[in-house]
Amino acid sequence: MTTSSHATHGQEALDLLAPQPGERILVLGCGDGVLTERLLKQGVEVVGVDTVKERVTAAQERGVDARVMDAYKMTFDREFDAVFSIGLLHWMLDPQTVLAGVKRALKPGGRFIAEFGGHGNTAAICTALIAALQFRGISTHRRYPWYFPTPEEYRHVLATVGFKVEHIALVPSPKTLPPGMERWLSHFAEPFLHGLDEDLRYAIIDNALLTLGYSLRDSYDHWTADYVYLRVSAHL
Ligand code: BEZ
Questions:
Q1: Residue 72 φ/ψ, nearest 5 degrees
Q2: Which of 8, 64, 17 is nearest to 235 (CA)?
Q3: DSSP, residue by residue, 151-219
Q4: DSSP state of 225
Q5: Which residues in the chain come in under a pLDDT of 70?
Q6: Model confidence over 103-148: pLDDT tens digits?
Q7: What is the structure's pLDDT at 32?
Q8: How far is the CA of 229 from the centre of ligand 1 (A)?
Q9: Which atom of ligand 1 is nearest to the CA of 3?
Q10: Quick check: CB of 4 below 6 Å from ligand 1?
Q11: Cα dihedral 93/94/100/105 (nearest 10)
């Protein structure tokens, strides 16, 4: 489970959550707890889960009741007024199973608010990486790591699990990358490159950078990533 920086976005989703003092809220993918701490300060009883032990420890150090738990295997039962998730669900390729766990965790009438990569997220970056792999005859089967649904697709999945949608929309959110695209790729392109020799990995990254320079780099050598979020609010 990998999450994006919680410090830099999430306020609009928090506004949708509209947490009330005394509510019990589950944060799915709590990361290092920065955003979760904001809920605590609003008088909310928060439980955070994440699969990465170091992040859970960091969240605990901020005073969050954080636990190591996989979003596919949540054990909560009708405990929460709301489930809140930022920057995680595009890593979960089986949304139905995750949402079934979210539903189990919620009290009757409970709400689910999430923001994650939506349709078109980092489309230029994905296409450049896929093209560089295909050019070398390397199959992308089992390499593409993300689930970036359209609002229509996700609305349907939510409905099949039993949620009613209040709000669902794509939010184009271009993000400047001060350290540049190479640094971004060295972190996020890993699933596309696993098992390949080092020389081949470098060649693929170089190709992708060359292609992406045309669309995502400006004349000052500043890079922007083509982020698109899906923001959703639903209830049982
Ligand atoms: C993220 O988890 O931050 C992320 C994943 C895929 C593309 C862009 C961002």
A1: -80, -15
A2: 17
A3: HHHHHHHHHHHT-EEEEEEEEE--EEETT-HHHHHHHHTHHHHTT--HHHHHHHHHHHHHHHHHHHB-T
A4: E
A5: 1-8
A6: 999 999 999 999 999 999 999 999 999 999 999 999 998 999 999 9
A7: 95
A8: 10
A9: 2
A10: yes
A11: -30
C-beta 163 within 6 A of ligand 1: no
For ligand 1, atom 4, which residue shows the shortest CA distance?
Answer: 4
Whether 122 lines ligand 1, by a CB cut-off of 6 Å, is yes
Rg of the chain over Cα atoms, rounded to whole angstroms, equals: 19
Q: Which residues lie below 8 Å from residue 64, measured CB to CB, with a gap of 6+?
A: 27, 30, 33, 36, 37, 40, 46, 48
pLDDT digits (tens, 9 = 90+) for 50-63: 999 999 999 999 99
So what's the pLDDT on residue 10?
A: 86
Q: So what's the pLDDT on residue 188? A: 95
Q: Which residue has the tokens 């595009």?
A: 90
Say what the pLDDT of residue 141 is. Answer: 87
Distance CA 6, CA 11 (A): 10
Length of the chain: 236
